[in-house]
Each structure stands twice: as C-alpha cells, then as structure tokens.
Amino acid sequence: MNLRALGFMLALLALQSQSHVESVSVPFIPSMMLGRTFDYSKSAVGVDIYDASVRDNAVVRHVDRSDVKFKMIKSSEDVRDVLDVSGQLSLKVMAGVVDVEGRGSYLKSSIESGNTIEVLAQIYYRTVTKTITDDKQPISGWDSKSIVGQHYIRSITYGGYLIASLKFTAKKTSTKEHIKARLSASLNAGVSLSVKGQFEKLTQAAGDTASMSIYYTSSTIPDLAPINLTTLLTIIDNFPEKIRNTNEGLGVPIKVEIRELGYLTQKTKFKFLENSGNVGPNIERLGKMYHDIMVALNEIRKKLKDARLTDAQETKYGKFYDKIMQTHGIFLETIENLDLNANTASPTQFDAAINAYTEDTNHYLFGKFLRQWRRVRKENPWDPVEIRKNNEKRVKDQQTMQNMEGVIGQLDAETSSFKNLYSGGDVTISFPTQSASTYMIDRGSPEMDSIMACFSGKLTSPRSSSHIISYATTAHDNSFLVYTTRSNARLTLVDKHKYYDINTFGMKDGKWHGWCFYWDATGTNNVYKDGKIVYNSQNSRTENMPGGGTWVLGQDQDGIGRNFEEGQAFIGEIRDVNIYGNFDKNYFKTVVGPAVSSSNTCNLKYKGNLIKSWDEFKLGFVGNYATMVKSSSCSN
User: Fold this and answer.
1) What angle do CA 105, 111, 116 make, to 5 degrees?
2) Which of 29, 285, 333, 474 is the most buried (most CB within 10 A)?
3) Domains of the chain: total
4) What is the CA radius of gyration of the chain?
C-alpha cells in the first residue's frame, strides 16, 4: 500500500469515529426559547440570536398525538429509555446540574429492590410545534459576539407528559420470579393495547400474589390523587383534556429541536463535530457508575438518618461515607465539564472519574458501592429507631382518611397559583420563611462586561443572611451576588466583595422598593432605589463576568445551582426580577441610566440588553414554601 492510500485509509477511520451533528431532538430545559443558543455538551442555554418578532411569528404546526413507552425496569438503561433522557443529559440530570422536570427522582432511584418489580410508563401528548423557518434571518452581527454553545433552538414542541410507576411487591419471596414472568408476558402480549388496557392487564397478571403501589408525576395538576388503579386510570383518561386547558391549549414545552450554528455561518468556531469514537461508551460507563454512587448515597442517608451508632460504627460508616463522597465529587466535576465536541474535547476527560471508581478493583463491575455499603452494614448492624416510621405512618393515615376537602381545596389553590405563575401576568413571589428547597433558577448566560440586576422587593430581617440574586460559574460560585446580613447590615456585590451600608439605603424598612444594581468592567458601580441613584463608585471589579453560569433567586449557590442552605435563603417578597447586560457604555450613560433614574424601578420600560427576564425565572420556580400572588403594583 502506497503512502497516499495509507493516508486515505487513516482519514477514513478518523471520520468514522466522529459524526457531524446538524440537528438533534432533546427534552425541554427551563429557559429554552426559540432562537436561543444551546451548549449541547453542557446542556446549557445561551443567548438570543433571533429577534423577538421572529419568535412571535414562528410557524405553528398542529400535532395532536400521543406517544407511549412501557417497560419492566431491570436496569438504569431501561429507565433512561422510557423517560427519553439519555447520554450526557441523563448524567447531568442525575447530578442535579440540569433540571428536566419530573425525571430526576426516577433517574436516581434504585432498580428492582427486594421482592419489588417495577413497570414504568411515560405518556407524551403533543399539541403543536413552533418552528423558526429557514427563510428567517438571525440578528445582524450575532456571530461576532460571545456565544454559548454551537447550536440554536430551531423548534419547540408543546403538550404534556405523564409518568406512572407501578411497583408490584410479591407477598412471598418464592413467588417473585413467577410474578415477574407473568408481568413480562403481559407486557409483550399487550403491545397494541392502550395505556389503560396495559395497566388493567398488568394488575390482572399480578393477581392477589402481589401488592401494588403507584408513583406518579405529570405536567398537569390532577383533579384526583392517584391512590389506586381506578383513580390513576381516571387521571389518564382526563390527561389530554387537562393539557388542552393549559396555556390556551398549548400545554407546556416538552421537546426541542436544536440545530448547529454552522448552518447559519461558515465560521469555524461554530462547527460541532461529535466525537463518537470513545465518548458514547464512556458516557454509558460513567452513567452506570454514577447511578451506583447515587443509589448507594441515597440508601446510606436514608438508613443512617434514624440510626443509633456506637463510636466504632460511627468511625466505620464515616470512613465509607467519606470515600463515596470523594468519588462523587470527582464524578460531579467530570459531568459538569463534559465536552462532546471533537474540536475541543480532551481525550482524557473521563479518566479521573473512571480511575476513582475502579481505584481498588481495577475492573468495571458496576454496582460496586452499593454492594460495599450492604456488606459494611451487614458487618456492623444497628437497632433502628421506630419513632420516625410511626410518625410517617400516622401522618399518611391522617392524609388518607381525614381532611379530603382540604386536599381538594389545596389542589384548587395550587392550580390557581400555577395559572398565575405561567400566565405572563404580574406575579409577586412571597417567601414567608427561610427554606433551602424553595428558589427560582435559570441556566445559561453570555460573558458579560456589564450587568444591571433590577427587582422590586420587600425584605424581612432573617435569622442570618438573606440571599436575593446569585450567579455562579465554574470559575466562582459567587461571580455575582446580592444579599443582606443581619449582623452587619451590609450588602456584597460582584465577586470581589463590594460592601455597602444598606442602612443608608433603607433596604430593610419593611416597605416595597424598586432596586437596580449596576456594574461594568471599567469598575463603575451604581445603586438605584425607586428611580434615584443612591450610590456610585469607580473602584469595583474590572474583569469580564464569565458566561455559561446559572442564575438563582432566593438562595446562595455553593456550587452551580446546588448546595443551598436554609440559613442563607431569602425571606420577604419579590417580583419583576430582570437581568440586563453587555451595554454600550455611552448608550448606558445617555439612555439607560437616565431611564432608570427617571422611573420607579418596578415600572422600568427599558427592554433592551435583556439577559434573563422575570418570565424566565418564573418558569424555573421550585419549592413548596413560597406563595404566588397576583399583584398590580409595586406596593401591593
């Protein structure tokens, strides 16, 4: 073989290990919008490259179709297949780096435990698809700016999802395999049946040899609690109609099509070449390992929560817990920094995680940590405390047997709040108490040489600190932070800790005020209150703010979008949070600054240079310890 032929063969082999990705379908992630860029590797949402008028006039195609997936769950791959969340995205969802609504708890859950057999089903109901057609042009000069990702969101499909898990627990260990075989045969024989027919057939197959429990989540709020098969089937029957009554018949965003930015420009930096040589197998391997870590951690935390341990047991369990947490941290860092682009990916990006998992075994036998944990527990048993179990049973009995009218009333209230939250109307979020599980989140941001964070709020003095706005990046989890403290009544802004005495601002007077906090890379810092500039300095941070981070309202991020603490949570009321940025300095001085100074901040009419909007933050609302109230003015 001559050198030319050899070169051709080597090039061909290289191409076979890489694939060109132009368009791909992915689940909807909060803050996705038509015409917005997307980092496929990091599942991070970027910036708008199409004008809002293009988004508003997208072509609408009516779909009106249901898709159903059923499976008996034997492995974590089965769960990912049913939920249609795979590859690097499933890793990021398990790690809590990305929120794909409704899927996280299922992806992290244990597979087939004890005498239990699980059948998982997902129903997708599609209403319409909105698409930016190829004749529409992006914003002029978009490709000369700092852009997150190599794709953009070309279409969004609306509708709803319903996920139901039926868990059959054999009454006798000896009958488990028999029940499993009957359920499997029922699934295979009923492929042409409706969802309702499948569930009925499965229940009949299990018979009286197993008890059944139901776990359920949906994009709609049901009129009934799915406490048995009859109520679950009623919910399934009503599911399409519930979607048609949501968001003027659209439902919620469930799927998006992303297209390579290289379709819009020939610039090399926007070319995405998927490295499929070793990336696919390594992601699959990483997924199995990380699932083992998460399941083991969940079981450890659950079992140790009410355990009475001796000093020797504390040492033994603590040593094992430290080991698994150290491995978890390495996996988390690897997952957060995954790169699927062959143009930029490091060939060693998986090494640290895989080496940490196989450190004392030198093989890929998955389930290692769960096996080790169960062995440690068997060798070091303890007496469980029954108080918590009894309390949980008592609460469950009360919820089931009493106050059903109250439950229905609560559902009505939640439905009303849901409509307020997503209707696009004026909404105030009230945080009456500090909670680590209540916040508003939106991921993705461009690199910024200036930021103006505006909001209207009424602050309540907390026990400790109260965090209002935080922006975390891989460079620093406090890249941009607005918060108050009780002890010294100061406010920290922009990473390098610019302090203000907020007593002089009247920030904690218990009244509604409009606020804007401005910073740019020249070192300028302005604070606006109720349309008046109350602070100005020229000695702040002078480096650009990194892009690709996560914005959170109501919490301090000790890690990107995670590690919240109750004692640092926001307490008070807030609305109209908008983040602006990347201003032309002269334009800000002559137009934006005067606009802010001449109006109450909550009625600010300026809509340009928007990085994150209040509507986007509302889509990322999480938690149960806040209320959503329709309001008409800042003082309401």
Assistant:
1) 110
2) 29
3) 3
4) 26
Distance CA 237, CA 233 (A): 6
3-class secondary-structure state, position 503? helix
466's CB contacts (< 8 A; 6+ apart) are 434, 459, 460, 483, 484, 485, 486, 568, 569, 570, 571, 572
Residue 43 lies in a domain: yes
Give the integer Cα–Cα distance in Å for 97 and 93. Answer: 6
In a domain, 635, yes or no: no
> Does 92 share its domain with 229?
yes
* Contact status, residue 100 vs residue 93, Cβ threshold 8 Å: yes
The structure tokens listed for 116 are 């239990």
Q: What pLDDT score was predicted for residue 548?
A: 83
Of 553, 314, 328, whose CA–CA distance to 442 is shortest? 553
* CATH number for the domain harbouring residue 445: 2.60.120.200
* Distance from C-alpha of 46 to C-alpha of 39, rounded to nearest angstrom: 7
Q: Which two tokens stand for residue 387?
A: 């108080």
DSSP state of 384: B
C-alpha span between 174 and 179 (Å, rounded): 10
DSSP H or E run through 407 = helix 404-422
Which residue positions in the chain have pLDDT lower than 50?
A: 1-21, 192, 385-387, 390-391, 404-405, 407-425, 489, 495, 632-633, 635-636
Q: Are residues 237 and 306 in the same domain?
A: no
User: 379 burial class (0-12, 13-18, 19+ CB within 10 angstroms)?
Assistant: exposed
| Strand spans (E) along 78-237 | 116-131, 151-170, 210-218
Tokens representing 196 are 């309702």
Q: CB–CB of 221/244 below 8 Å? A: no
What's the predicted TM-score (pTM) here? 0.51
Which residues, in sequence order, are CB contacts of 414 under 8 Å at separation 6+?
Answer: 221
